[in-house]
C-alpha cells in the first residue's frame, strides 16, 4: 500500500551521526558499563510534591477529557508567568497547553506554513526540527551558523535564504550548543522578521537554565508580540519530561486556530498533569532551581577540567544541559572521535554532526550524570583528545 510522501520523507532517511547513540544503547543492553552523555534526560525524577499533586488531582476525578485549550488554571498560570518574566501583556487567550514542547513546535509550524512554504531553522539544530517542519507540510531549510561566532546567528546569514520562507525557528538557550543568544542577536533577528515578514517561532524550553547572561524572550521586543509564537515546556524546567506538558504563547487569533487544530489532533492534555504543572509553576522558584542546580554545578566542574588543558575548546556554555566541545585539534570529525571514545573508554557522547553540518568537528556532552563521574568522564575526554592531537600533529 502506498504511504504518504510526507510521512516517508519526514526524516530524509538519514541516521548519520546517530549511529554512536544506537551503538551505546546496544552496548548497555548487552550489559556493558557505558558512561551515557548523549541525551537530555535528567538524572533526577519529578519532585515528590509535584507527583503528590498529580495523584490528588487524579483521585479527585480529573481523569476525564480536559478542556482542549488547557485548563483555565494552567492557562492563567502560564500567562501570568510569561507576563511577569517578559512584561508583555498575556492572558489565557494567548496560551494553548500542548502535550510537550515537541507537539507545540509541530502545531506552531502547522499554524503558519502552507505546503511548499519554507520554514527556516538554524544549524546546529535540535534533532527533530527539520522533520517537524516537513511534518507540517513545509520545506525545511537550514541556515548555517558558525563556530567562529560561537554559533550566534546573524541576519546576513539568514537573509539570503528568506526567499519563499514564512517562518524562522530559533532556540535560546540552545540545544545542542549551550549558547544563549545575545540581545544584539535577538534584535537583529526581530528586525529581520519584521522587514521580511516572517513568523518567529521561539523555542524557549530551556529558559530556566541560564548560567551566564540572561534569557531574553524575543516576543518582548518591539513589534514582535504579534509575529512570535513561543514554545515552552515543563520537561526541562521541572524534570517532567514524561508528563508531556508544554505550551504555545502567541497572538489570540493564532491561539484560536491552534485550539481548533488541537481538537483535531491531540484533544488536549490530561487534567491531572495540568494540575501538577500549575502547582509546580506556582510553588516558587525553589523547584526549578533544584532541577537546574546539578547542571550549574557540573558546568562549573567542566570549566575547571577544561581550564587545565588546551586541546579541547569549549563553546561558551551559557545555558541548557549540554556542553559543545571543539575537538578539531585531533584532526577527527566529531563522529570519528565519538566512535573512538566509545570503543576505547566506553563513554558515549553525541557527534556535532548529529545536529547538522555547522558543528562538525565538535561533540555534545550532556551534563546528566552525577558530578564525580561527570568530571572524571570529561577528564578522560580531554586526555584522549590530547593523545589523538599529539598523534595528529606528528603525522
Ligand atoms: N526543544 C528543544 C530544543 C529540546 O531540546 C526538546 C527536548 N529535548 C524539546 C524542544 C521538546 O521537549 P518536550 O517535548 O519534552 O517539551
Q: What do you see in this structure?
A:
This protein has 395 residues and is an alpha/beta fold. It folds into two domains: 5-45 and 286-394, Aspartate Aminotransferase, domain 1; 64-284, Aspartate Aminotransferase, domain 2. It has 14 helices and 13 strands. Strands 2-8-7-6-5-3-4 form a seven-stranded mixed sheet, with helices on both faces. Strands 9-10-13-12 form a four-stranded antiparallel sheet. A two-stranded parallel sheet has the order 1-11. Strand 3 (118-123), helix 6 and strand 4 form a beta-alpha-beta unit. The longest helix has 24 residues, at 371-394. The protein is globular. The relative contact order is 0.17. The model has no long low-confidence stretch (mean pLDDT 96). The structure holds 4'-deoxy-4'-aminopyridoxal-5'-phosphate. 4'-deoxy-4'-aminopyridoxal-5'-phosphate binds next to helix 5. 4'-deoxy-4'-aminopyridoxal-5'-phosphate is lined by residues 40, 100-102, 126, 171, 175, 203, 205, 233, 235, 241, 246.
Question: How are the SSEs placed, and which strands pair?
Answer:
Elements: H1 5-8, H2 19-29, E1 35-36, H3 48-59, H4 72-86, E2 95-98, H5 100-112, E3 118-123, H6 129-135, E4 139-144, H7 155-158, E5 165-171, H8 183-195, E6 199-203, E7 228-233, H9 234-237, E8 246-249, H10 252-263, H11 271-282, H12 286-307, E9 313-314, E10 322-326, H13 334-345, E11 347-348, E12 350-351, E13 362-366, H14 371-394
Parallel strand pairs: 1-11, 3-4, 3-5, 5-6, 6-7
Antiparallel strand pairs: 2-8, 7-8, 9-10, 10-13, 12-13
Helix pairs in contact: 3-11, 4-11, 5-6, 12-14
Amino acid at each position: 500500500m502506498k504511504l504518504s510522501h510526507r510521512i516517508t520523507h519526514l526524516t530524509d532517511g538519514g541516521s548519520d551521526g546517530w549511529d554512536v547513540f544506537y551503538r551505546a544503547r546496544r552496548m548497555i543492553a548487552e550489559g556493558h558499563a557505558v558512561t551515557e552523555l548523549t541525551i537530555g534526560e535528567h538524572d533526577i525524577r519529578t519532585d515528590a510534591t509535584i507527583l503528590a499533586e498529580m495523584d490528588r488531582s487524579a483521585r479527585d476525578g480529573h481523569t476525564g477529557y480536559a478542556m482542549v485549550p488547557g485548563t483555565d488554571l494552567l492557562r492563567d498560570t502560564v500567562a501570568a508567568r510569561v507576563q511577569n518574566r517578559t512584561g508583555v501583556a498575556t492572558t489565557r487567550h494567548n496560551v494553548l497547553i500542548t502535550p510537550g514542547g515537541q507537539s507545540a513546535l509541530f502545531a506552531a509550524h502547522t499554524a503558519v506554513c502552507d505546503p511548499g512554504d519554507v520554514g527556516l531553522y538554524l544549524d546546529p539544530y535540535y534533532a527533530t526540527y527539520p522533520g517537524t517542519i516537513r511534518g507540517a507540510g513545509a520545506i525545511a531549510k537550514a541556515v548555517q551558523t558558525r563556530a567562529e561566532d560561537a554559533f550566534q546567528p546573524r541576519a546576513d546569514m539568514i537573509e539570503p535564504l528568506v526567499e519563499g520562507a514564512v517562518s524562522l525557528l530559533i532556540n535560546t538557550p540552545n540545544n545542542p550548543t549551550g549558547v544563549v543568544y545575545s540581545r544584539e542577536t535577538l534584535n537583529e533577528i526581530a528586525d529581520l522578521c519584521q522587514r521580511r515578514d516572517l513568523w518567529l517561532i521561539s523555542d524557549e524550553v530551556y529558559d530556566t537554565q541560564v548560567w551566564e547572561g540572561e534569557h531574553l524572550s524575543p516576543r518582548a521586543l518591539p513589534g514582535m508580540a504579534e509575529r512570535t509564537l513561543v514554545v515552552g515546556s515543563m520537561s526541562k524546567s521541572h524534570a517532567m519530561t514524561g508528563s508531556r506538558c508544554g505550551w504555545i504563547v502567541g497572538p489570540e487569533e493564532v491561539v484560536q486556530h491552534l485550539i481548533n487544530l488541537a481538537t483535531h489532533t491531540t484533544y488536549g492534555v490530561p487534567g491531572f498533569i495540568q494540575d501538577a504543572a500549575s502547582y509546580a509553576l506556582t510553588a516558587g522558584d525553589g523547584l526549578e532551581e533544584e532541577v537546574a542546580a546539578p547542571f550549574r554545578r557540573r558546568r562549573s566542574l567542566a570549566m575547571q577540567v577544561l581550564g587545565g588543558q588546551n586541546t579541547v575548546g569549549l563553546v561558551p556554555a551559557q545555558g541548557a544541559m549540554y556542553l559543545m566541545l571543539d575537538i578539531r585539534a585531533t584532526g577527527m570529525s566529531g563522529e570519528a572521535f565519538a566512535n573512538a571514545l566509545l570503543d576505547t573508554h566506553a563513554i558515549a557522547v553525541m557527534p556535532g554532526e548529529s545536529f547538522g553540518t555547522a558543528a562538525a568537528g565538535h561533540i555534545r556532552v550532556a551534563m546528566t550524570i552525577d558530578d564525580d563521574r561527570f568530571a572524571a568522564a570529561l577528564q578522560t575526554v580531554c586526555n584522549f583528545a590530547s593523545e589523538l592531537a599529539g598523534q595528529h600533529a606528528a603525522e
